[in-house]
User: What shape does this take?
Amino acid sequence: MIKLKYLVILTDGAADYPLEKLGGKTPFQVSRKPNINRLSQLGEVGLVRTVPPGMSPGSDVANLAVLGYDPRRYYTGRSPLEAISIGVDLAPSDVAFRCNLVTLSDASSLEEKTMVDYSAGEISTEEAKIIISDLAKSLNSSEISFYPGVSYRHLMVWHHAPSDCRLTPPHDISDRVIGSFLPQGECAPKLLALMKESQKILANHPVNQERKQKGLRPANSIWFWGEGRKPNIKRFDEKYGLKGSVISAVDLAKGLGISAGLRAINVPGATGNIHTNFKGKAEAVLKAFTEGDDFVYLHIEAPDEAGHQGDIETKIKAIERIDEVLGIILTELPKIAADFKVLLLPDHPTPLALKTHTADPVPYVIYWSNSVNGKHSTPEFDEVSAAGTGIFIEEGHRLMDRFIEGRPD
Assistant: This one.
């Protein structure tokens, strides 16, 4: 019996709302994507709710659901997944925090500052590593440990931390005064003190001095969010009987995959934005299948980053580059596997008009290489077409069951 190969292409944040600047259409509707449309013309298209009601529409929750795990049961926070990705072993009493390098405006008090840029101008990993290393030298203690990540995304672990902590993602408050969004709860005094100390250290930091000279935004503060404790989820191979890998530029997706027992594949030049190594990701997928993987989870962050920046042109370009990745895979994968399935979907919308995530259902397409037609297919893949098929999966974690165990129409 020929064993199927399974590929998930997660187009992070690609779903959107109709925009007046696009003639009332979404980026999916206006982008040139012949390969994605090929899937929708032969496969099953529908809508899926990846974020359970009442839960925050983060990529952590949504990707957990897409991988087949009920977030209501397994979700323990975003940062523990990132900790796992970079090899930080958390104790049961540890709380991990995402530590963004951000750009705040000048103001006399912290409360009056504005969130200018949640990514400090998409600071490079090399620059950020120097900054986080210097912060660690000054701020690490028996309680606190800082760890470098990728670009603006880093990690702080608080040993024996309190559980009462209410934090706001910085990408949710772009261009807003931060006073009402600062840490609250039992953890607040410690986190606020660390933030204020970081601003003293970073004010005249050599990396920031050089960035200013180049006309770039300085990383003049840290910002904590996404706190959580170590997760415990069932291995993917035990759940579905498939050996697999995860390919992503971001620690969240890699950590989630590692937690599920998937192998994390690092692609040189993968950045998490529009400048990522798209071709390298396609080649990594094909190599993983050649080496014997049954399942590959390909996560592409670029549309989400563009959504947070409110950048219409880049979001459309990101979707079109993803289509090119799919084109490479569809050309080469039949040479490796006689039979394969592809699931393509966003994890959540990141509407350009809002610059943050929403919990709206997202379109998905399931394609099987032996399909010739489908009664739930659509000429093009987008939010409107998906809604028109009448298929709606209320519990997002059940989509993976449908993908792996289902039959084509």
User: Anything to note?
Assistant: Residues 85-228 form one domain. The radius of gyration is 21 Å.
